[in-house]
Amino acid sequence: MKVEFDEDTCIGMYQCVAEWSEFEKDKDRGKAVLKGAEEVEDAVFVREVPEDAELDAKFAARACPVDAITIYDDDGEQLIP
What we know:
Alpha-Beta Plaits, five-stranded antiparallel β-sheet, two-stranded antiparallel sheet, 7 strands, 19% helix
């Protein structure tokens, strides 16, 4: 499973931070940050989700009020949002 995070879309409500410890607050920029992610295009970050964190990652994606977080299964199919 992979998580994709669009930092430009993020509005800094930080609900994802409350749901998954791999997101953290960057108060200087007013954005969340996805730890350990690789930037794959301008302000879009991707990383693998460990099996034991899949539920937390899904909760983080569902909690985002602006859909800045997308979850994909191992076949690349979009699961959330």
